[in-house]
Design goal:
Elements: H1 3-33, H2 36-106
Length: 112
Amino acid sequence: MNWHKARSYSTLIWICCNSLCTVFDVLISFTLHNPGVWQNEKVESKLKETTTRLEQQLAEEQAARLKAEEVAQLAQMKSNDEIRKLRENLERAQRETEELRKRAEKGGCAIL
């Protein structure tokens, strides 16, 4: 590398450093004159955290609700099945009772 290029790189680096210093000076000045700016970012960060936590909680509660609905649906199906069986038993008992009553009226043997 020749001296001319090295000098132009040095100049470029010097310009960049001065530019960065100027940017930092502006940021420091801005921060000193507007102290609430960083607090707003903290509030925004806290808001994002809270939103994320609430979205996660909502998803968990929705999953729990779906599970509870499945359990309730299974319980309802079992209950309906039990009711059907009980009705069938009741109808059979009523038919048998009616047959025994008719036999008793005719004077037949109630045991057989």
